[in-house]
Specification:
Serine Threonine Protein Phosphatase 5, Tetratricopeptide repeat, 2 domains, two-stranded antiparallel sheet, 10 strands
């Protein structure tokens, strides 16, 4: 049913619109997506810097669930960072601020009933690895004495730890390390270095990641078991070929 406009209605319609409030600072182009740099800072700090974690979460509570891809899909969230290094203080703080618990955080915190219930619901889950391909058994070991019962239980399963990997052939580290080019630009470079006998992959502007040897100069980056990094030796050249879902990249050692 329609009602006739009264003088009061007409007066209300004539009121000026309220002034529009604009942001004091320019709004980032990606807003409302949180800045990648902030997520990196949060996850990095969650390994060991409790004061920084408190400050970041205090300013932006959603950072308690921050996650970042360190390369090739090696995703790590803030709680995962605290869990694999055994930082109980940071892990408990993140959980109290909305972080999502996982079997990895439960293993590090010594929550045996949680771990057992998880493996009952999903048999074989003890073989799933966390960020950087760190095993569930290693998370329990990082939890120290408080997680000793979890460690013993997982160890008894026989397959909750990292499998043995074939060693590199003598001389391969020197042969494979170096800078590889896949184009003329300065950013079209891959550096293969080594630390403690383990090869590491680095592209300019990214974060170095360890390579896990599978045999025959074939590797996968940590946290990315579906990716293959293969080295081949031809007369006068060493070539690296990366098979990443959607990307095949070949580069030649300079």
């Amino acid at each position: 049913m329609a009602y006739p406009l009264t003088r009061r209605h007409l007066w209300t319609l004539a009121l000026p619109l309220a002034p529009v409030a604009y942001a004091a600072d320019p709004v980032p182009a990606a807003y409302p997506v949180q800045p990648l740099e902030l997520a990196r800072e949060m996850v990095g700090a969650s390994h060991a810097n409790f004061q920084k974690v408190q400050a970041l979460v205090g300013a932006r509570p959603s950072l308690a669930t921050a996650a970042v891809d360190w390369g090739f899909g090696d995703w790590e969230d803030a709680l995962g960072a605290a869990s694999h290094v055994g930082n109980r203080q940071i892990a408990e703080f993140l959980l109290s601020n909305g972080a999502r618990p996982t079997i990895f955080s439960a293993a590090m915190l010594g929550q045996l009933d949680v771990v057992k219930a998880f493996l009952t619901a999903l048999p074989g889950a003890q073989k799933i690895t966390g960020p950087h391909s760190i095993s569930l058994l290693a998370h329990a070991k990082a939890g120290g004495k408080a997680a000793e019962a979890v460690y013993q239980y997982l160890d008894s399963l026989g397959d909750a730890g990292s499998p043995a990997r074939p060693p590199l052939a003598p001389g391969d580290i020197e042969l494979l390390t170096g800078v590889y080019a896949f184009g003329p630009g300065p950013s079209e470079r891959i550096e293969i270095s080594q630390r403690n006998g383990q090869l590491r992959f680095l592209r300019l502007g990214a974060t170095a990641c360890n390579l896990i040897h599978l045999g025959n100069r074939t590797f996968h980056p940590v946290g990315a078991p579906a990716v293959r990094v293969r080295f081949s030796i031809v007369p006068g050249r060493t070539i690296i070929t990366i098979h990443d879902p959607g990307v095949v990249l070949t580069a030649v050692k300079a």
